[in-house]
Amino acid sequence: MARILEKQAVLLLIVQALYGVANALSGTFLPVYLWKASQSYSVIGWFTLAQYVVGGLTFWLAGKWVKEYNKMNSLRAGIALSGLFYCAVLLLEDAASSWIVPLGILSGMAGGLFWLAYNVVYFEITEPDTRDRFNGWAGLLGAAAGIVAPWTSGLVITSMQGVKGYRLIFTISLAIFAVSVSLSFFLKKRQGDGAYNWKHGWMQLKQKGNPWRRMLPAIAAQGIREGVFMFLVGLTVYTATKDESKLGMYSLITSFVALLSFWLVGRWLKKGGRKWAMLVGVIMLGVVILPLFQGVTYTTLLLFGVGTSLFMPLYIIPMTSRVFDLIGQTEESATEREEFVVLREGGLTFGRLIGLAAYMLVLPFNHSETAITWLMLAVGISPILGWWFISPFLDSQRTKA
């Protein structure tokens, strides 16, 4: 089958790209904004905890909505709530750090509704032969957003000196979210089909020999790394430099490298090469953390960021594609796609909470360079465990654990 993306897939990529741009503009600097207001690693941890827990619960609860009704409304609601979240941050200003848990809940609901619908629609409009290509383009567009948006935000925030810059950036994000919602109406209406099974995930894990008993730990290992790196890297760059424009430049450089890497891997990676490409990727994701042991400086952080951007596609593209290939392996499993997407998110949430627990046990009490580096190494090598769990699925199209 030709590896050409259909128009609906391209439109979904555009909607995701706009959503990514809006989040990259503001989300990159949100941990910095909260840290400046509170000077507390605990505050950021509690915000992230609320975000992860509610995000995972939203996937499970909204699964019925997406399964039985129009899933596009879930996607639009997620974008709209993301806009509402930044609106709340704007209105609260410095008091945002006092409303950290409610803000985390709102952010978690927004992300849960958007990504649940997005992942289900993504599965429906791609095939095994186009999935690597789609994921390559998704990563490429995400990297492109990371090039332009945070760099622009950093310049604006620095030049306007203080809260005014953050206000402007959050307002621009609101406008982009509105455009993203508008474009989503051009995606085909996808009415629900069948009844949602609340116990589906548990039933899969109870069944002896079920492939998800091995796949889910692989997904959780991915979540362990994500749970910390999604917010700690940018925050560490800022605390090392005390300059938002440096964080913007950091994002520009690392995202440019990621753009090239995602394009190359998405274009050339074949199914037969997934296993060893992924092994190289997970090993190097650990190796690139080692420069930080020489000191957490802008230079060593940049070495780490460039290395991560270079090797991440070798890990994340096969990981994502193989999980969704497993969901679509039979007609029966394809009809349970919503439940499987919820199960996948459950694994990610569990892993993220493990990573976040490590953060909460360490950094609020000891945020020295050594503590930060060892924490990043501990969670940063978790994809190696994920590769071990998923490797039998990369040898062939086998589905037995």
From TrEMBL:
The keyword Hydrolase does not apply. InterPro entries: MFS, MFS_trans_sf, Sugar_transport-like. Keywords: Membrane, Transmembrane, Transmembrane helix. It is a multi-pass membrane protein. The keyword Signal does not apply. The chain crosses the membrane at residues 40-62, 74-92, 98-122, 134-153, 165-187, 223-241, 247-269, 276-293, 299-317, 347-365, 371-390. It is found in: Cell membrane. This is MFS transporter. It comes from Paenibacillus chungangensis. The lineage of its organism: Bacteria, Bacillati, Bacillota, Bacilli, Bacillales.
